[in-house]
Specification:
By secondary structure, this protein is an alpha+beta fold. It has a single domain (6-197), classed as SET domain (Beta-clip-like, Beta Complex). It has 2 helices and 11 strands; from the N terminus they run ββββββββββαβα. The strands form 4 sheets. The chain has a 4-stranded antiparallel sheet, with no helix packed on it. It has a 3-stranded antiparallel sheet with strand order 3-9-8, with no helix packed on it. The protein is globular and about 40 Å long. InterPro entries: H3K4_H4K5_MeTrfase, SET_dom, SET_dom_sf. It comes from Candidatus Woesebacteria bacterium RIFCSPHIGHO2_02_FULL_39_13.
């Protein structure tokens, strides 16, 4: 679900990546743009080979994934880039998306999907088409980069234990969200991004 007004974003078709989210007007660095809300599903019960819905499944923890509400456009339509202009992080048991830098009008909003190393992904359908100078050709991180990301996320985690453990649980929107993330967090993520992607 987008947290910024629709006057700031639009969904358009892209050349190689299906639909994507684009800025209708400039968006300031650090702006909280979305929350990946939806139904929590047990990963062990999910048939990844047959299920087309896997395209929108967001990692939640080692047991659960978030399946978003698809009836209206949401942040599940934000595409991957190997050098994204937005980032995802946990916030009070939610997965929020914010801008890493100032976004210009007409820029595509992108995140890194941060998929684990492709040890069991053969043939792997997770090809990257971002075509940035840092493009790795895959949505998967290397072993070392994934470890860096996990360590970073664990340090930044709210330390809140999730109470949403059952299959029927849904991540419902908060009544109130912060409008921005801290500059300190942005600096840390940019340093991590540089370390991971060069």
């Amino acid at each position: 679900m987008f947290l910024i007004p629709e006057s700031y974003w639009e969904i358009k078709k892209t050349k190689n990546k299906g639909r994507g989210a684009f800025a209708r007007k400039p968006i300031e660095q650090g702006t909280l743009i979305g929350d990946y809300v939806g139904k929590l599903v047990h990963l062990k019960d999910f048939d990844f080979d047959k299920e087309k819905k896997k395209l929108y499944l967001m990692f939640y923890n080692d047991e659960l994934g978030i399946y978003p509400y698809l009836k209206k456009p949401g942040v599940h339509l934000i595409n991957h880039s190997c050098f994204p202009n937005c980032w995802i992080i946990r916030y009070k048991d939610h997965t929020i998306i914010f801008t890493l830098k100032n976004i210009k009008k007409k820029d595509e909003l992108t995140i890194s999907y941060l998929l684990p190393p492709k040890t069991n992904c053969k043939p792997c359908p997770h090809k990257c088409f971002c075509r940035c100078k840092n493009c790795t050709g895959t949505l998967h991180l290397t072993e070392s980069d994934y470890k860096k990301w996990q360590e970073f996320q664990d340090k930044e985690d709210d330390k809140n234990k999730s109470k949403t453990k059952r299959l029927a649980d849904k991540l419902k929107p908060f009544k109130k969200y912060p409008k921005f993330v801290s500059k300190r967090l942005i600096s840390k993520i940019k340093a991590l991004q540089k370390e991971m992607y060069g």
